[in-house]
Specification:
single chain, 180 residues, 6 strands
Length: 180
């Protein structure tokens, strides 16, 4: 955690505002409000949540917010193969993964070329974990190289457990979407 007092105040204030945004009784509203908050408050051009399907072979894009054009093949509802993705690395390790310049590992991950075509240059992927079980990921992308500052990453790390907890509270909704 940062020792910079103004930075700590910003993190704390943002967390309180985030909590107020996710006080909905409906999972769709919780996710939608969360992504809208992240996109607007943290100025992130692309924010999405991908959840594992119940067989853990695929990811389904549960919700996407993007200030620019949508990315072909990565829309809300799309089913994506899990293997050979940066998200797979995050789900397996249960640790966040920041890629300050996705162009450097373009060949490594299949989806990277789609992100680059859309003008995105850096990503941050955070696992959504409840009781040692990874439900999916919170995915952030920026249009600049190293475009997700450390303070934003610190804030996002604190959002992810709340999103996972609120998602688990709505288990029946997740089941109806074939996620668990």
């Amino acid at each position: 955690m940062t020792k910079n007092l103004p930075e700590q105040k910003e993190i704390f204030s943002t967390l309180i505002d985030f909590e107020n945004e996710i006080k909905s009784l409906n999972l769709k509203h919780i996710i939608s409000n969360s992504l809208k908050f992240i996109e607007q408050r943290l100025n992130c051009p692309r924010v999405s949540i991908a959840l594992l399907d119940k067989n853990k072979d695929f990811l389904r894009i549960f919700e996407v917010r993007m200030s620019k054009k949508q990315i072909a093949g990565i829309h809300k509802g799309d089913l994506l193969p899990l293997k050979n993705t940066a998200i797979y690395k995050v789900i397996k390790s249960k640790k966040p993964f920041y890629r300050p310049d996705i162009k450097k590992d373009k060949a490594k991950y299949e989806i990277t070329s789609k992100l680059l075509k859309a003008g995105l240059k850096s990503t941050y992927i955070i696992p959504l974990i409840i009781k040692e079980k990874c439900l999916g990921t919170l995915n952030i992308a920026a249009s600049e190289v190293d475009g997700i500052r450390e303070i934003k990453r610190n804030i996002l790390l604190r959002f992810a457990p709340r999103l996972a907890q609120r998602s688990e509270e709505h288990t029946s909704e997740l089941q109806s979407h074939s996620f668990i």
